[in-house]
Design goal:
hydroxylation, alpha/beta, secreted, 10% helix, Leucine-rich repeat, LRR (right-handed beta-alpha superhelix), 4 helices, 12-stranded mixed sheet
Length: 375
């Protein structure tokens, strides 16, 4: 006897009966789950779901199957990718029966509502992309209980309220929460995160950048906090990010002097500090960073640049220092605006360090001078 499963012909002589039974049970569950989800989709202008008919779920458009990694019979549903399908509808709890699924990509659709609590049962899920949809309500905390999740993308939705602390306790490699309506402060345990990319841009976050900032993994590549309502100083620990490539804190209300440690960002390519209230000198070595491709300090209150900054143009590095308070330079603020330093000359914590700054010993220097409660 032969059985057709997901387009494959399986001989009953080579597949033990109990394995065949488990396989059919798994695929029947997947079929029921996907049909339940299909019934919750109210608009499918691209006719993506026209293929979602019959019991052969592995033939459904956007559904991917493979043999399981253990000794269980296969194939099983291991991924769903409906990016740019323009589907309108909601997510249903039945999706959680797809426990072999490692990725769920729903970018650029019109899904709304909230995430079912049963999503915590997606024990194999590693990538969850819900970006560019119409989800709303508080942060979907069920995502924090998906045990093996490593990539979380919630950007371009309408989530609101505070960001839970546990986001930064979870072993996520990428956190995309930008372009929502999250408010309150960035949790103080930010430094616990092992992520290589954190994007919190275009929200309504306020308060200081947590002092634990520099305690994050030295493997972090990108941090984007732009277009929020952040205040206070840029923490000294910024210099510990030896593999940082992009740091963008533009369009906030950050004040005080830049920490000298920012000169230790040896791999930085894009450094955007524009549209803040920063003052003092741009640290001398910043303009000498070898990987720098774009440096933007415009619309601040800086009063001086080093000679190395003038050489950036010869290195074909994008450099914008307009609308500051730098004497003898064109396109600066009117003098009356420069006579009053925003924040009354906020005194940021300065860590005594050898001159010249020794980046290799920075971690020990900061550890000796900072405690978790330091401002």
């Amino acid at each position: 006897m032969q059985v057709v499963v997901c387009g494959l012909v399986v001989g009953s002589a080579t597949l033990p009966p109990h394995h065949l039974g488990l396989l059919l049970q798994s695929l029947n569950s997947a079929y029921a789950a996907l049909q339940s989800w299909k019934s919750a989709i109210t608009d499918d202008p691209l006719k993506v779901l026209d293929t979602w008919v019959g019991s052969d779920v592995c033939a459904y458009k956007g559904v991917f199957c493979a043999d399981p990694q253990d000794d269980e019979p296969g194939p099983v549903v291991v991924g769903i990718d409906l990016n740019h399908a323009n589907l309108q509808g909601t997510l249903v709890k039945e999706i959680s029966v797809l426990t072999d699924m490692s990725l769920l990509h729903l970018n650029s659709n019109r899904f709304s509502g909230t995430l079912p609590d049963t999503f915590r049962d997606l024990i194999s899920l590693q990538e969850l992309d819900l970006s560019n949809n119409h989800f709303s309500g508080p942060f979907p905390t069920v995502t924090l209980y998906i045990p093996n999740l490593m990539y979380l993308d919630l950007r371009f939705n309408s989530f609101s309220g505070p960001i839970p602390e546990d986001v930064f306790n979870k072993k996520l490699d990428a956190i995309f929460l930008n372009n929502n309506q999250f408010d309150s402060q960035i949790p103080q345990n930010l430094g616990n995160s092992p992520a290589s990319v954190i994007n919190l841009a275009n929200n309504k976050l306020s308060g200081n950048i947590p002092s634990s900032f520099g305690l994050m993994s030295s493997k972090v590549k990108e941090i984007l906090f732009l277009n929020n309502q952040l205040t206070g100083c840029i923490p000294q620990g910024v210099g510990l990010f030896t593999e940082m490539q992009v740091l963008d804190v533009s369009y906030n209300s950050l004040m005080g002097h830049l920490p000298d440690t920012i000169s230790c960002l040896n791999q930085i390519e894009v450094l955007n500090l524009a549209h803040n209230k920063l003052s003092g000198q741009v640290p001398e070595l910043v303009c000498s960073l070898k990987s720098l491709a774009n440096l933007t300090v415009a619309y601040n209150f800086f009063s001086g640049l080093s000679q190395d900054c003038a050489k950036l143009f010869f290195r074909n590095v994008g450099f914008d220092f307009s609308l500051n308070c730098i004497p003898g330079r064109d396109m600066q603020r009117p003098q009356p605006e420069c006579s009053v330093i925003p924040g009354g000359g906020l005194s940021c914590l300065r860590i005594p360090s050898p001159q010249p700054l020794i980046c290799g010993s920075l971690a020990e220097t900061l550890e000796a001078n900072l405690s978790p409660s330091s401002p």
